[in-house]
Amino acid sequence: MSVQTITRENFDQLVLQSAKPVLVDFWAPWCGPCRMVSPIVDEIAEERDDIVVGKVNVDEQPELAMQFGVMSIPALLVFKDGKLANQAVGARPKDALLALLD
Question: Is residue 18 annotated as a catalytic residue, yes or no?
Answer without folding.
Answer: no
